[in-house]
Write a structure and sequence with these properties.
The complex is a heterodimer. Chain A has helices at about 25-35, 55-70, 80-90, 105-110, and strands at about 1-10, 10-20, 40-45, 50-55, 75-80, 100. Chain A is α/β, with parallel strands linked by helices. By secondary structure, chain B is α/β, with parallel strands linked by helices. Chain B is about 35% helix and about 30% strand. Chain B is built from twelve helices and 15 strands. In chain B, helix 3 (about 95-105) crosses helix 4, helix 4 packs across helix 5 (about 140-150) and helix 11 packs antiparallel against helix 12 (about 335-340). The longest helix of chain B has 18 residues, at about 270-290. The chains are: A alpha/beta, B alpha/beta. At the A-B interface, helix 2 and helix 3 of A face helix 11 and helix 12 of B.
Chain lengths: ~110, ~375
């Protein structure tokens, strides 16, 4: 897994690539926690380059949502497609998070 | 007609046939099936005395063929063999291949031998190739000539050693149809074959050989529809499997994934199925993880080529209980994914182990 971050429209865009699984989820959680602790509260997670996600990855996303809620922040997912989309659908995640087709749309949705 | 008792054959330290006991009756067609290297061809070669058995006895019509006084050439006239690689004489024409042995060994006159050979070539549909040479024929045609040559000696029994395995798929049918015809005419035959549909159609009885013994035998409908033993079923259903043993919570997920992917690639499973299988394995490992300090888990992926059926079987030691219903699960996410990826999940406490059998959906969008 690789994480790239950039700031756009006062939000942090996190581009995640590779696998978000039992092995990589702890590293994802750590990075996100650091970003939130650093005062960031608006996030777009770009799934365009993510090939694989398991329930361990989904739990990391849930934890992120929980941390942001505590700080009054928000998150929007972008480009959830293919196999990752299937896992979102089968675990009921699709309706749980705000999801847009692209990073630009996600940024717009955050306002 | 043929009575085999406690037959064994070893090559040095390698025991190929452990203990074979069976009978083949006059007019019976017996197919011998089983994985490669389990002694099927060696059994036929022992019958024809191309190999000398290490122990046991073989009787043909009451004559002990392993007795040194028994004439091997006479046995081979009575019980002729068709080989995988045809074994035709390349320097002789088709008709010469057929007439050589009857003239030399049986003392039949040239004209009579030639007339009989032509009759046999007509039987296998190759009369027009009488003057051709083997290298002018296709593999299927060469094998039909080999069958005709075998019949020219008027054997009472024919042994077929994988008669179609050296042929292109397009030529298999022509050879099998000749053998089917012989079966209809009442020829006694023992056929080592990998052609399951053929074995099922043509045989009165099927022997499944494994581990150097006749592992299971029966009429084709019983052996193919309802085999009694697990190994026979796995062979009939063309089940390929991969098993890994996990005995620590610090297992290497990526090394396992690489092995599973290699297995899937070998079975030519679609990419989506591979993805779902890897996901299923990871979700199950997450559920088993808290117990892996004290429990040993064996995961077997089994793919039946015949039924295009993919299963994952988890066998674990420890206390009895379905791990998917464990009160220790932190949430339902993993179980939800597992249920979505599978058509059926069966839990049993079997032989002191928890056995979880999952039938994987292979048609997910």
């Amino acid at each position: 897994m690789d994480l790239q971050t950039k700031t756009e429209n006062q939000a942090i865009v996190v581009t995640i690539s590779g696998r978000l699984d039992a092995v990589t989820a702890p590293a994802y959680e750590k990075s996100i926690r650091e970003l939130i602790d650093g005062g960031n509260s608006n996030f777009v997670i770009d799934f365009e380059q993510l090939d694989y996600i398991s329930s361990a990855g989904l739990r990391a996303l849930l934890l992120m949502a929980k941390l942001l809620k505590e700080k009054g922040g928000q998150v929007c997912f972008a480009s959830v497609k293919g196999n990752v989309r299937s896992v979102f659908d089968m675990s009921g995640f699709t309706g749980l998070f705000r999801t847009e087709n692209s990073v630009a749309e996600a940024l717009a949705a955050l306002g | 007609m043929i009575k085999i008792e406690h037959l064994s054959k070893r090559f040095g330290d390698l025991v190929v046939l452990k203990d074979i006991t069976t009978e083949i009756k006059t007019g019976e067609v017996v197919s011998i099936i089983g994985p490669s290297g389990t002694g099927k061809s060696t059994l036929l070669r022992c019958l024809n005395r191309l190999e000398v058995p290490s122990g046991g006895s073989i009787q043909i019509d009451g004559v002990d063929i392993l007795d040194r006084k028994t004439d091997a050439a006479k046995i081979r006239q009575k019980m002729n063999m068709v080989f995988q690689s045809f074994n035709l004489f390349a320097h002789l024409s088709v008709i010469e291949n057929l007439t050589l042995a009857p003239i030399k060994l049986k003392g039949i006159g040239e004209e009579a031998a030639r007339a009989k050979a032509l009759e046999l070539l007509r039987l296998v549909g190759l009369a027009e190739k009488a003057d051709s040479y083997p290298d002018e024929l296709s593999g299927g045609q060469q094998q039909r000539v080999a069958i005709a040559r075998c019949l020219a000696m008027e054997p009472e029994i024919i042994l077929f050693d994988e008669p179609t395995s050296a042929l292109d798929p397009t030529m298999v049918r022509e050879v099998l149809s000749v053998i089917r015809r012989l079966a209809r005419e009442g020829m006694t035959m023992a056929i080592v074959t990998h052609e399951m549909d053929f074995a099922r159609d043509v045989s009165n009885r099927v022997l499944y050989m494994d581990e150097g013994i006749i592992y299971e035998e029966g009429p084709p409908e019983q052996l193919f529809e309802n085999p009694k033993k697990e190994k026979t079923r796995a062979f009939i259903d063309r089940v390929r499997s991969y098993t890994c043993r996990i005995s620590s919570p610090d297992y290497d997920l990526y090394a396992m994934n690489a092995e599973i992917e290699a297995f899937c690639e070998k079975q030519i499973l679609p990419k989506k199925t591979r993805y779902n299988l890897l996901l299923l394995v990871e979700e199950l490992l997450q559920i088993y993880n808290p117990y892996l300090r004290t429990v040993v888990l064996e995961m077997t992926i089994a793919y039946s080529e015949k039924h295009e059926r993919l299963e994952l079987i988890c066998e674990s030691t420890g206390e009895a209980g379905n791990p998917l219903e464990s009160p220790g699960l932190t949430d339902e996410l993993g179980v939800m994914i597992i249920r979505n990826l599978t058509e059926n999940i069966d839990y049993q406490w079997l032989g002191g182990k928890n056995r979880l059998q999952l039938l994987i959906k292979t048609n997910l969008p």
